[in-house]
Design a protein that fits this description.
The complex is a heterodimer of chains A (458) and B (71). Chain A contains 17 helices and 16 strands. Chain A has 458 residues and is of the alpha/beta class. Chain A has three domains: 73 residues; 161 residues; 200 residues, Vaccinia Virus protein VP39 (Rossmann fold, 3-Layer(aba) Sandwich). The longest helix of chain A is centred in the first third of the chain and has 20 residues. Chain B is an all-alpha fold and 71 residues long. The chains are: A alpha/beta (458), B mainly alpha (71).
């Protein structure tokens, strides 16, 4: 049975489906000429070589819809599908720049990319990669870029808002599935951005033109042949320099310098690392989700062994740092993401099925929750049993660190409020977690009051 | 810059609505942006003439790395 993926229904040129657990993309006959040109012109080879396009193989597999099919291709599988509202600033910026680079390269082969959806971009083996092979279309001299609006909504508007207003506005992408409406972005951006030529053109003026022409029919004879190739290249170049000009530096947020202010001695830090490595050897997971990973120090114990690792944190600054480290070391098995565990990414889009919730993208082989329990149980008042159940829904294995009330980090959390957490003690924690898990290992972390556990779901 | 001008045999099959306003603004600014782009390309060529550097490819985007950090 072919099961069609709910994330690819818009484009009549083809679609994704799985059969027997393998992911395929059907190329429809409507896309035959484009597909053949992509493959034979050298564009596919060039884009794949640059790491910008997902490689695929043509297969004899049965098409999902044989009546429409031209070919079936099997793309390389991305380890974890992530979404733009889970990316840090530089992740979104790199995705924007690769989209434009692909467009420029495509033009050399007389093609364009016909959509500029941030959801078509994924992190594959540490590289920003377009996963939609059907995004390429013929370039028609004189025509505008059909995906210009989408590029501005998916990339330029959120990046400008993150850089000039507040980095947390990336979360608007979670509300607006087709990108941030330009009139909203224009309203939220500070007035000084009107002096930036790129932003004033592609966002502010663009938003006004949209509003002025909303609901008006366009005379297509008047728009044809008006933008020559140089104009098209100028547009790409202008978008590129506008994106490059947007910057955000992580500083002054809660976690950016967390490791400097914890009460870990170097010895305790190393002891904890050794224990985590030991536990991973025992559980042998294929994938790890490190939840509350800060800048990924502990995630790397897993990813450096070749385990596909999600390194998630609520703080955009920590994730930004994490991503920059990932890029500078050219790491292939780590993916830093911004995730608020108290409100993780839900199912979104058409029929609530287009974008999967965090849970639906699981299960993970193992969940790591280091120095996290006090934030969930005390700051967010989640009962310990609920914490255990949620982790158990995400994965069979759990590495969890218990941080006692005597720990200075917990003291800070309790300093401004009533202690209404009688269960928050090590014995009670163990008793409660044992309802869901079996405790495989428990070791005190030398040089601290904390305990590390390896648990397996019952 | 090299263009392989191949005959376009099939019409593009766009499925997105580009939006009227978004088409009009492109028509409005394309000439100016194209002009600016040409000046940039030729300025680079002139600079190369004087610095004697060989024809380097136009900027390639790469992911944020240490180089970007140093900026």
């Amino acid at each position: 049975m072919a099961e069609r993926l709910q994330s690819s229904f818009r484009d009549p040129c083809g679609f994704l489906y799985t059969r027997g657990g393998t992911l395929y993309r059907q190329v429809n006959r409507a896309y035959q000429a484009q597909y053949d040109h992509l493959m034979t012109s050298g564009l596919y080879a060039a884009a794949v070589k640059a790491g910008w396009l997902i490689p695929h193989e043509e297969t004899d597999a049965q098409p999902g819809l044989p009546d429409l099919a031209y070919k079936v291709i099997q793309p390389e599988r991305v380890a974890f599908i992530s979404y733009p509202y889970e990316w840090s600033f530089s992740q979104l910026k790199d995705a924007a720049l690769v989209t434009l680079a692909l467009l420029r390269r495509a033009l050399e082969f007389n093609m364009v990319i016909k959509d500029a959806s941030a959801y078509n971009i994924q992190f594959h083996r540490g590289r920003v990669t377009l996963i939609d092979t059907l995004s390429f279309d013929f370039y028609e001299e004189g025509s505008p870029w059909v995906a210009y609006r989408q590029f501005c909504q998916h990339f330029l508007a959120p990046l400008a808002l993150m850089a000039h207003t507040d980095v947390r506005l990336s979360q608007l992408l979670r509300i607006y599935i087709d990108g941030v409406p330009l009139d909203l972005a224009s309203k939220l951006l500070p007035a000084k951005t009107r002096w930036n030529l790129g932003l004033s053109t592609h966002l502010h003026l663009h938003a006004r033109m949209q509003q002025k022409n909303a609901g008006k029919a366009l005379d297509s004879t008047k728009t044809r042949g008006r933008i020559n190739r140089i104009g098209f290249l100028g547009l790409i170049d202008s978008l590129e320099s506008t994106v490059k000009g947007l910057n955000w530096k992580p500083a002054g947020t809660e976690w950016a310098d967390y490791y400097q202010i914890t009460n870990y001695s170097d010895a305790a830090f190393d002891a904890k690392k050794a224990l985590v490595a030991d536990y991973l050897k025992e559980a042998k997971p294929e994938t790890v989700w490190d939840l509350g990973s800060n800048n990924g120090e502990f995630s790397r114990i897993a990813s450096e062994q070749g385990i596909e690792t999600i390194s998630a944190d609520i703080d955009p600054a920590a994730v930004e740092q994490n991503y920059r480290i990932m890029c500078s070391r050219r790491e292939k098995h780590l993916l830093p993401l911004v995730i608020d565990l108290t409100n993780p990414s839900p199912d979104l889009g058409w029929g609530n099925q287009e974008r999967d919730s965090l849970t639906r993208r699981g299960p993970a082989g193992l969940v790591m929750a280091l120095a996290l329990i006090h934030h969930l149980a005390i700051s967010n008042n989640v009962p310990l049993l609920e914490v255990a159940r949620y982790f158990a829904a995400l994965s069979e294995w759990l590495i969890i660190e218990f941080v006692p009330k005597s720990d200075s980090q917990v003291q800070i959390l309790l300093s401004s409020r009533e202690d209404i957490f009688p269960d928050y003690q090590r014995d009670r924690f163990e008793e409660i977690f044992k309802q869901v898990y079996q405790i495989v290992r428990a070791d005190p972390i030398e040089g601290s009051q904390r305990t590390l556990y390896l648990m397996r779901r019952r | 810059m090299h263009f392989e001008l191949l005959p376009v045999v099939v019409k593009p099959m766009a499925y997105l609505d580009p939006g009227s306003g978004s088409i009009l603004i492109q028509m409005l600014v394309a000439a100016a942006l194209g002009g600016a782009y040409l000046i940039k390309v030729y300025w680079k060529k002139i600079k190369r003439l004087f610095t004697g550097k060989t024809d380097e490819p136009l900027e390639q985007p790469d992911q944020t790395d240490e180089a970007a950090e140093k900026k």
